[in-house]
């Protein structure tokens, strides 16, 4: 089986004045279809940088990244944006919902960018909002939703394009314990029932405990990579 994500010898350096600061150093990493994986490490370890490189939001200084068999490291800006739209679903710590749009309209926005018809956009939005437990709340704007509900809208938006992989950056960081547990259960259920691949950068031990693969990055290098076939229910 070909990997959904294939990173080979990824490096990323930043300039701070005259100093060259390494953020990611020689990372090799494959994520296979259907995995439910966490990427952890201390602050400044390089995990968010690596996630952003995988998602095409940042470019590596060296090495190659392929998403669903398509090498992205050298793509131009327009082609890279198109690939992100088609292949990658993003769930951000800060939700990043458009405040003037309803839950359904936030989900449909990505589909509109993809050129999908209005009727199909509505159908998909209804389906994915139902999947994440938000039936009946489709017309509410973000301000009228709880933090947990807003993050579920963000998950629905990430799923609507039927991506190859969903990348989540600290998805539970702004949620209380109850909402965080609900979000973890939701994503795990989606992984199991639909085979959706998740890679989550996180500090949250509750997220890590439920993943079937746990990757730790330290000082820009993979320190450990543990596959666990019996993650907790």
Describe this structure in words.
With 233 residues, the chain is of the alpha/beta class. The mean pLDDT is 91. It is globular, with a radius of gyration of 17 Å. Helices cover 35% and strands 27% of the residues. The protein has seven helices and ten strands. The strands form two sheets. The chain has a six-stranded mixed beta sheet with strand order 6-7-8-3-9-10, with helices on both faces. The chain has a four-stranded antiparallel beta sheet with strand order 2-1-4-5. The chain has helices at 47-54, 77-87, 103-113, 118-131, 147-160, 177-194, 205-210; strands at 5-16, 19-31, 36-40, 62-67, 70-71, 88-91, 165-169, 198-201, 213-218, 221-227. Helix 3 packs parallel to helix 5 (147-160). Strand 9 (213-218) and strand 10 form a beta hairpin. The longest helix is centred in the last third of the chain and has 18 residues, at 177-194.
Topology of this structure?
Blueprint: E1 5-16, E2 19-31, E3 36-40, H1 47-54, E4 62-67, E5 70-71, H2 77-87, E6 88-91, H3 103-113, H4 118-131, H5 147-160, E7 165-169, H6 177-194, E8 198-201, H7 205-210, E9 213-218, E10 221-227
Parallel strand pairs: 3-8, 3-9, 6-7, 7-8
Antiparallel strand pairs: 1-2, 1-4, 4-5, 9-10
Helix pairs in contact: 3-4, 3-5, 4-5, 5-6
